[in-house]
Design goal:
The complex is a heterodimer of chains A (332) and B (277).
Chain A: H1 7-11, H2 18-23, H3 29-67, H4 70-73, E1 77-78, E2 83-84, H5 87-118, H6 121-136, H7 139-166, H8 181-206, H9 209-217, H10 222-232, H11 234-250, H12 253-258, H13 276-283, H14 290-324
Antiparallel strand pairs in A: 1-2
Helix pairs in contact in A: 3-14, 5-8, 5-11, 6-8, 7-8, 8-11, 8-14, 9-10, 11-14, 13-14
Chain B: H1 3-41, H2 47-51, H3 64-95, H4 99-113, H5 116-131, H6 136-160, H7 164-172, H8 177-205, H9 232-240, H10 245-273
The chains are: A mainly alpha (332), B mainly alpha (277).
Amino acid sequence: MSAVPQNERFHSNRTPSTWRRVLSPTGNTGDAIFRVLMFLVALLMVGIVVAMVIALSADSLLSIRQFGFAFLRSQQWDPVKGEFGALPFIYGTVASSLIALLISVPFSLGIAIFLVEQAPHYISRPVGFLVELLAAIPSVVYGLWGIFVLAPFLRNYIEPALASVLGWLPLFKGTITGIGLLTGGIILAIMVTPIISAVVRDVLAAVPGSQREAALALGATKWEMIRVVLVNGAPGIAGAVILGLGRALGETMAVTMVIGNRPQISLSLFEPSYTIASAIANEFTEATGDLYLSALVELGLILFLVTFVVNGIARVLVWNVTRKTGGVGRAA
Amino acid sequence: MNTSDRIRRANSALMTGLTALCTLLAVGALLIILSHIAWQGIGSLNFRFLTDVPRPVGEGGGIGNAILGSLVLLLLSSAFGLPVGISVGVYLSEIGRGRVGGVVRFIVDTLTGIPSIVTGVFVYAIVVLPMKHFSAFAGGVALALIMVPIVARTTEEMLKLVPHSLREGALALGAPQWRVILGVVIPAAAPGIATGAMLAIARISGETAPLLFTAFGSRFFSTSLNEPIASLTVQIFNYAISPYDEWHAQAWAATLVLMTLVLGINIIVRFLTRKRF
């Protein structure tokens, strides 16, 4: 791409080469230079992703060679002995994200339905803005609030109540500290709700009005009409949920501050846990020895690959819905 | 009206009521969090706190160096991130409309979703390791990487709002495409691009994870790009997980400062764009 043809060739009309057509359909030298420049910058984006894969793979090579696939299965995380296994972190990451989705998906759907289908314009705009502001609060601020407000609240009220009613389930056994998997999941739920609801709003808004009119004309109640709209937007809603999942999987600071940071696999939601992102955040600067650092980078590589795939799936699902009707994906 | 109709109507009223309740709870959560920050933060906030460097427990100290550090990091990342982000947006909207453009758009979108901690690890590998020490420069690069895809996508959306007749008019007057883009399309979309840039700055000013092992942190005033540098967010994190009540109070006050910046930008942007959306 670097070979920009000479001026002369551009202005001669006799040899319309392929290069020339690719670089500038208008046959203007300035256009050719501008297009090449912009293309190079766009190529930089692809380059960054490729560089990420290469850099993360290269730096985790030591750990990959040492442990192979056992890294994903092993529960041992003992830096002193040089034993590194990622399973507790994978478990903590997946479990906290699933708790977050379980709580936030119904809420996000409710919010999106209210704002798109019910609220009049003068309510849905300011209220929609307020919900979006939840997404503007930095992660570390959620963490601070989680440590000093949410965790004590859960410890004193919610977790004892859960333990007394549902204590026979292994999920709600164990000591109540307010710091653990459940708190991490709830903080994540608050953080991904504005993201999921924003995308669902776009998806619902992209469902054609004729669907609503048809349902109402057949005598459907408001809620029955909304269900028709939801079925129409189902793939996009699935995309929104997966997008929320991608965000929850990689969320770092808030989770790190409330999840307890203990690499263990326990069924109890009250017990401390540890996520991939938290492990990197906590241990990266303290990692002594190449193998330790390499194991942490491999955790980063796993997180990168998983979120890349998850986001890719989500984008395709959301695009298919909002593109068809010419909607513009607004979501972050 | 028969019974089944009544049940259907009651069900409808119940479910639509529940959706309103969901919205109310989300707005309630926002107000609870914001009011708690204001209430907890205002106590320790004074001039000395805003200008002093951190000091050991019991000696007061402040966040002056963290505020300065955050500003340095924001300036640096904007200097890297804004030109690149806007250029990618121009490419996506004006040039890359075919399959290649689709690939780039997909890459940019997935870049937005890469966890910021992974960006931190990446920058550690390509900047910190070769330089052999933490630096403000590395922090700026990490924040720029987070900023670029956000700016690119908002720029693209804003450029697409520019009416085609404007482009066609300029082209019909004989202007080459690059002059049409730089002289007509971008100026027409400039307010939108600027607000997108402001939102991106608000977003990265709250980032902590990518700074932990790039900019690292510092207890002194510093503007050197070659040295580790303090930032509001890392300071809040370190104070929040410390065991001292005095530092917790300082974390709340620093959070109040950070939130004023972040929410201030968001509200200003909303105010500026209220006519368009």
